Structures are given as C-alpha cells and as structure tokens.
Amino acid sequence: MKKKDLLIKSSIPVLLAALLLLHYAFKQPATDYEEIPLLNTDCPPGFKRNANNECIAQNLYMQYDSPNNKGVGGLQTGLPEIRDGFTPQEIDLGRYLFFDPVLSGDGTISCASCHDPGKGFSDGLATSIGANNHTLKRAAPSLWNVGYLKKLFWDGRASSLEEQMKGPLFSPEEMNNTPDNLIHTLNSIEQYKLLFAEAFPERDRNAPIKLAEVYTSVAAFQASLVSLNSKYDRYAHGYHQALNDKEIEGMNVFRSFVARCAECHTPPLFTNQQFAVIGSPEPDDLPLDPGAEIPFQDKTLRGAFKVPSLRNIEKTAPYMHSGKFKTLREVVEFYTGGRGHAVPEGEDLIIHWHIWEPELSEYELDRLVDFLKTLTDETFTPEIPQTLPSGLNPTVKP
C-alpha cells in the first residue's frame, strides 16, 4: 500500500470523530447514537443521587434529633429541612446561569457579582453595587446553606429561592433585566437551548426556554451550597481535638446565658431564622433602615432584620445589613455596648430582649472572635465555569 493510501486510511477515524462532534455540537434529533451529556450527571458533594435522579442532602447532622430538643447551643442537634430533590442537571445548569452576566440587562452583572464564592458568597462591600454602578442600600448576604432558610433577604420579604431571585433579576437598581428580555436572550443562545433541553427532558426538546426553568435551575444551584464541615462541626460530632483551648473558651462564651449569642444564632445553622431588632447603627448618619417593618406592615418590626447565619462569617466582612462594622471584633464589641446604645434619636425601637449589657471582658471578646472563625468551611465550594454558554466572561475569575 502506498504512503498516500495509508495517510487516507489513518485519517478516517479522525474524520468520523470530527463528524460526531459536529453532530453533538449542533444537537440534531437523536439517531442510533447515544447523546453525550453536556451537564454533570453526578450530584455535588454533600448530596446523594437516588433512583429518581434527585440529589438528596447527606450530612452527619441527619443522625440527630430535631433542632430544638437539646437546649440553646446544643452541639448534636438536627438541622431544619433543606430544599433538595433537584436533579444533577438542574444544579449544573444553575451553576452556569449563576456565573453568567447574560442574566443582567446589559450583560455585565451576574448573580456572582454580589455573591462571590471567594468572599463567602457575599461581595466584600458594605453595600452592593448594581446596574450602572448604583450603590444599593444593603449588604449582600451570604448564600452558604441558603437551602435551609425559610425567609430570604435581610427583611425576609421572600419565602422561596425562586421568589428571591426575581428581586435582583428585575430590579432596575440591581441586574436591570425584564422577564421578556431575559427569556428572549436565553432563547437566542443555541448552547443554552441544548442545556435546558437536557436539564428538563420531560418537555419537548425543541420547546423554548421558560422563566420557570430559569428560576428552578438557579434555585437548584443555590440550594446545593452547603457548608457543614468546619472545625466546629468536627468538634460537635465528637472530635474534641478539633478546637484549641481558646476556641473552646470562645464557644462557651457564645453559648453562655451571659452573652446569649446562641439564643439567636442557634447551632448548627447558627441562626434561629427569626427577626431581631438589635439597634445597630446606620453608616454615615443615614436615616434608620426600617427593615422588616415595610414588607410585613408591622411597626413592631421597625429596624428588624433576619438573624443571619454565622457560617463562614470570617469571609463576609463588612458586617450588619449596612456593612457598618469592618471586623468581627467590632461586631462583638457592639453587642456588649449596652442595650439600644446606637439607636438614633427620636426612634423608639422594640429592642430584642436578648440584647442587654453582658459586660464581656476584652479577653472574652477576643475568644468570641476565635470561636466565630471556627465556623469557616469552604470544602464544597463549586467550580467556577471557565467558559459560559453565552460566550461572555464570568464576572468572577476562576
């Protein structure tokens, strides 16, 4: 056989491979070939796939009883119910959408712009920056363990992840998009049409992308952000060498009836998911933020905000709804400063009864900070996509 014939013969497998790649890239209707999945078929860490292709949460806290049966601050207590049952494909599609600025009106802002995994799924700003560099009124809350939360936003105005995401998406001050523009944009991107068809196989593969599918996918990804493997968790599960002496001292202050931290920041989620009026000061003498009073039309909730989880709190400075405090040390100092000491003149707020005058020493405050840092766990941080279906660059660098 001639050398030229050998070259032609050896090229045939390469040509066939290239044709197959083109076939899957353009995603023609299925033939005898099995479709190559474009999305992850495995559940993220912390979840186990069941026979129905659903990702079900798995963690050591599931071996314990309900959250409130062992007293405030108990170590081996259960977690509230998590939002799970999404498919691996829905979660992975949500991951692409979360980091893709195509969701914003001008293609410059993604969910990750304000919820950066490198900053505890917050953004490191006192208050976030939205569309057209607009300064927002509140800090971006962390999304770690958000699948466990029943009320969302600082003022608790949303009760589901789907409801919550509509706020930033369609706010002129935040992502500045509209439902019609968002769905038109996604349906104009061939790669997203393929991904949505794979994530939602029960519908016609050629059907247009629907808003409900966008909400489901992003909710699925957010609910997969679980952080339950910190030094504290290892201690709570029985490995008492996980914390050093100073951290244990800080934990005991945290759980004490003097400091009362655990009464609102209740383990293991480190929030009781309630509202609290603590009287934290606004920055630069701005007017009082009425908080939950507005959505609930309840004057007793004036100045009330949702008790945030303290998971990965070390990563989410600055602190409070307005980013007033730059360090954890400033935060714990505020709580020992006396009941209502920072309430603006003329305001008659109903301060939460746990806020009083514990008169903690400088040493105790330092130990509290030591303990709060033991709640850091980024083991299951998801991978940031290096490329996006839209062709845009992720707003957070991999």
Fold topology:
Blueprint: H1 3-26, E1 47-49, E2 55-57, H2 88-99, H3 111-114, H4 161-170, H5 179-187, H6 190-199, H7 211-223, H8 231-236, H9 245-255, H10 261-264, E3 275-277, H11 293-296, E4 304-306, H12 328-335, H13 362-372
Antiparallel strand pairs: 1-2, 3-4
Report on the architecture of this protein.
- The protein is mainly alpha-helical.
- The protein folds into two domains: 47-223, Cytochrome c-like domain (Cytochrome Bc1 Complex, Chain D, domain 2); 231-375, Cytochrome Bc1 Complex, Chain D, domain 2 (Orthogonal Bundle), CATH 1.10.760.
- The chain has helices at 3-26, 88-99, 111-114, 161-170, 179-187, 190-199, 211-223, 231-236, 245-255, 261-264, 293-296, 328-335, 362-372; strands at 47-49, 55-57, 275-277, 304-306.
- The chain has a two-stranded antiparallel ribbon. A two-stranded antiparallel sheet has the order 3-4.
- A hairpin with a 5-residue loop joins β1 (47-49) and β2.
- The longest helix is centred in the N-terminal third of the chain and has 24 residues, at 3-26.
- The model is unreliable at 1-34 (pLDDT under 50).
